Amino acid sequence: MDLGIAGRKAIVCASSKGLGRACAMALAEAGCEIVVNGRNSDELARTAKAISQSTGAAVREISGDLDDPATREALIAACPEADILVNNNGGPPFKAFAAITREDILKGVQSNMLTPIALVQALLPGMAARKFGRIVNITSGSVRAPIGGLDVSSGARAGLTAFLASAARAHVSDNVTINSIQPGTFDTDRIRSSLERTVAQRGIALATARTEAAARNPARRFGDPAEFGALCAFLASARAGFITGQNILIDGGAFPGAF
After folding, report:
1. How far apart are CA 200 and CA 179, in angstroms?
2. Which carries the bigger pLDDT value, residue 197 or residue 80?
3. Mean of all residue pLDDT scores within the chain
4. Could you say which of 47, 170, 205, 212 is the most buried, measured as most Cβ atoms within 10 Å of its Cβ?
5. What is the pLDDT of residues 211-231, one digit of tens each?
6. Which candidate, 48, 12, 10, 47, places its Cα nearest to that of 32?
7. For residue 178, what are the CA distances in angstroms to 6, 138, 155?
């Protein structure tokens, strides 16, 4: 399917690896010019080179922490007329509820709510004026079904989801959509760190922990980041202009509800 976004400009946050990288690759394959971002400049450069070589797309790198206003300003300066914004940022680490501090909460809210809101507020007016915009927020399946130990992440990402709900309805008539994707268990560094925690707690082999975790999913596997990227690219496409304010779960059927 031609997604109708060849030549469009996209900012993909936290895209040096994992789901963000998959989104950047999928958008580049659709013909977009890409601005990628990450905190590790060497890793970011490798990602930008890989995307460019694989797709022929123009790729620009902006290194830095998204929670730093200077990094956000650099992103916007690199692509002031962005047509597509993919909001992504690192999530708070696993932590028992009783151990969560006020500082933990404030940091999580900054990273997973305030930072993406700041980017939306900066770029949405231009999208509306140009009559095309696609904003995709990468949140988490834990927004829909909270997971113990990820309380800060669940709360902050749920806040982002609710905060942008009215803006999604207000700007769809400008051909600007705002949606979120809620990933379940994907084969990324984040799941690997979770598996390593299981290994340490139970004293089992990493391969065993991985097999057991995959078997708990109805699909009997982890998600492929490329599958996530493909969904992101569709939501960012010209074909998805009637989809807005939606929170799309992609988890292999792990969430047991019908709605």
Report:
1. 37
2. 80
3. 96
4. 47
5. 999 999 999 999 999 999 999
6. 10
7. 20, 11, 19
- Superfamily of the domain at 9-184+226-249: NAD(P)-binding Rossmann-like Domain (3.40.50.720)
259 pLDDT more than 90: no
pLDDT at 180: 98
Question: pLDDT tens across 165-210, in order?
Answer: 999 999 999 999 999 999 999 999 888 888 988 999 899 999 999 9
| pLDDT recorded at residue 187 | 94
Q: What is the DSSP string of 55-106?
A: H---EEEEES-TTSHHHHHHHHHH-TT-SEEEE--PPPPP--GGG--HHHHH
In this structure, what token pair is assigned to residue 161? Answer: 């989801």
Q: Which two tokens stand for residue 209?
A: 């922990």
**In 3-state terms, what secondary structure has residue 10?**
strand
- The whole-angstrom distance between residue 93's C-alpha and the CA centroid of its chain comes to 16
Tokens of 21: 């990288």
Answer left, alpha or beta for residue 145, where phi above 0 means left and psi between -120 and 50 means alpha.
Answer: beta
> C-alpha dihedral over 76, 135, 249, 207, to 10 degrees?
-20
What's the predicted TM-score (pTM) here?
A: 0.95
